[in-house]
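Per reviewer request, we include the raw input and output of the structure prediction for the construct analysed in the revised manuscript.
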Amino acid sequence: MKIKLTSLIAICLLFFSITSFAQDESFNDYIITLKNDTIKCELHSSNNVDWFKYQIEGAKGSKKLNADSINGYYSSKDSVLFLSKHTPGPGGRTFLQLLERGQINLYELNSGSDTYWYEEKNGDSLKLIKMYRNSVHIGDNSYEANTSRKERQQNLFNALADNPELLQRFKNAIKDVNYGFKLIQYYIKTYNDEYFENHKSSK
């Protein structure tokens, strides 16, 4: 009887630890409040792709992800951070995925089958540097539609301008390789790495 009771207690303890671990695992996401505090939560989606609601740990019910009411959110499932930003043009704030962080931040916006990349240097306003449109936009008069490829490239040239050697390497690269997403991300990351090393050594 003593052995059975001991076994029963052990099973109960194991079950409790497993369920506690499962509960903790479900709240590995977080939101960033308007005061820049982070709060653990669980993100919910209708299709396991686009997050649209979150539930704070210990709270009943969920709230809609709104770019005007929180500064961002992090998905542990995909290990991605989205921040609330005001994109160029007359539109309001929206969530952009942060791809690179540093002196130059690189953001991505996916809208349907279209992709837009923006750079943000030293906290300045966002500038469109690359876009890929896979759908037809008849009568589109948006900011994105009215920027030329040359203007988008110049926005990135301006961001890299205080590292003239890197800028020249980038200009040489796009003569041989298409002005593509991978190339852009590589040079923004390189800029950030070099900026960090230069300012670290000067301190």
